[in-house]
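Suppose you are handed only these lines of text.
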Amino acid sequence: MEKVRTENVTVVKHTGSHYWVSPLPLWKPVCCVIRGKIRTKELYTTNPIAVGDLVDYQPQTGENAEGYGVITKIHPRKNYIIRKSVNLSRQAHIIAANIDTAFLVFTLAFPETMTAFADRFLVTCEAYRVPAVIILNKIDLMGSYREETEIFKEIYRGAGYPVIETSAITGEGIEGLRELCRGKLSLISGISGTGKSSLINSLDPSLNLRTGDISDYHLQGKHTTTFYEIHPVKSGGYIIDTPGIRGFGLIEMADQELSHYFPEMLRVLDGCRFSPCTHTHEPGCAVKEALDRGEISPERYSSYLGMLQEETKYR
Ligand SMILES: Nc1nc2c(ncn2[C@@H]2O[C@H](COP(=O)(O)OP(=O)(O)OP(=O)(O)O)[C@@H](O)[C@H]2O)c(=O)[nH]1
Ligand SMILES: [Mg+2]
Ligand SMILES: [Zn+2]
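From them, the structure of the protein bound to zinc ion can be written out as follows.
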């Protein structure tokens, strides 16, 4: 039998205590567990290992052991996306590691999914140097939200983020998405029911991922996708499908640091008279001047203020 690589393999699926790992591009998942202590720098995370992580494992030997292994080492991460749970434990959860692009899926047909969530997610992407792309999905339903759609696009393109529009139903925008995914490991994230799994199915129908029934989404806690899992896409690239997230808690960061994760603020903040500047009450603040000139959107600025307050409150 041909020997399959056991070092530097990618974690392709995470379910509770099990991690499926596979050498890429060869697709041959092996089911692994962690035994003993795995050294990671992050403290207080609910998961020491996440999809996208590169690990070494020891294949199990003996009867019926084929296809099983024990993870022995985790390699340093290029980047990762982490969120704090919004409940009292404030425990952190690593969503995925070593990703090239983070897609954030929105749909204005569910107006609740708007900017506060987007901005928290985007700040985390900036803090961990993950390029983010916003997807406005279900544009086939956007007829009655045309104005909101235009405003939304203006805010995020103005902040410096690509915004693409798609429909998993009509296929609009799917070719563009396909090009962005080719040759990359992409994360697809967003609240439940925005169409993440449907979009991946549009890219590669042979994956046949389970998608939700729209009428169920009014029930609280409904999540169709329940695992973090990497899927190889036929036209090239790998996509991580994720369960919908309801709230996105920011990891602690210093007040002075936060504005560095708003690209439109980072562009101008060297011009602030005071350094560090919180861009709230300080005179000669270049961020507030840019806000007055309309170069920074009031929505994004007020999101920034909200995060500042929240961070202070939890400290
Ligand atoms: N009209 C329309 N419906 C869509 C589109 N994309 C997805 N849907 C529908 O939205 C519902 C939810 O789609 P899913 O792909 O399961 O959503 P999800 O984001 O993966 O949801 P979770 O796995 O729970 O996080 C399904 O009924 C889809 O058919 C779209 O572009 N247009
Ligand atoms: Mg899904
Ligand atoms: Zn300032």
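What can we learn from it? The two ends are 56 Å apart (CA to CA). The first strand starts at residue 9 and ends at 15.
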